[in-house]
Design brief:
Keywords: Signal. This protein is α+β, with helices and mostly antiparallel strands. It is built from one helix and nine strands; from the N terminus they run αβββββββββ.
Length: about 150
């Protein structure tokens, strides 16, 4: 008997919920924040982590492989992140959601996402030009690019 009553109560609750949604209307999520900018944050190799977040066009340290990594950050939401090294497309090895957009960039463990960090491993590649770009997901649709020459 209890299972019949529970099913009936559940049926009434679902019916009431559906009616209240019909009166209120469909629920809409807030629009995603458009991409506001991208930047290269660090270039790291063999124990050297160089902060390049000041927007410089060239690293000050000589970075040698293997395992040169470049960390890129973006504020807002993009739709087509992409990077090249010496003109050749490369894929990121890690992507992290960011909750706070202040140094140091810490991956989200809860809270609202404000952007993403991407880590690119250049492998055995040595000197050259790294470039990252992304296009905004929301209006105004713009493409942002950050480039650095790695010594």
């Amino acid at each position: 008997m209890k299972s019949v009553i529970n099913r009936q109560a559940l049926g009434r609750l679902l019916c009431a919920s559906a009616l209240s949604l019909a009166v209120v209307g469909p629920l809409h999520a807030a629009p995603a924040a458009g991409l506001k900018g991208v930047g290269i944050y660090t270039v790291a190799s063999q124990g050297v982590i160089e902060d390049v977040s000041d927007g410089r066009r060239r690293t000050q340290n000589a970075h040698r492989g293997p395992n040169i990594t470049v960390t890129v950050v973006e504020l807002g939401y993009g739709r087509a992140p992409g990077a090249t090294f010496n003109g050749n497309p490369i894929s990121y090895s890690r992507r992290n959601a960011l909750c706070e957009f202040s140094k140091p960039f810490v991956p989200c463990s809860g809270g609202a996402t404000v952007g993403y960090s991407y880590i690119y491993d250049l492998g055995d590649q040595q000197q050259g030009t790294f470039s990252f770009s992304d296009r905004s997901l929301a209006m105004p649709v713009q493409t942002f690019t950050a480039t650095i020459d790695i010594n």
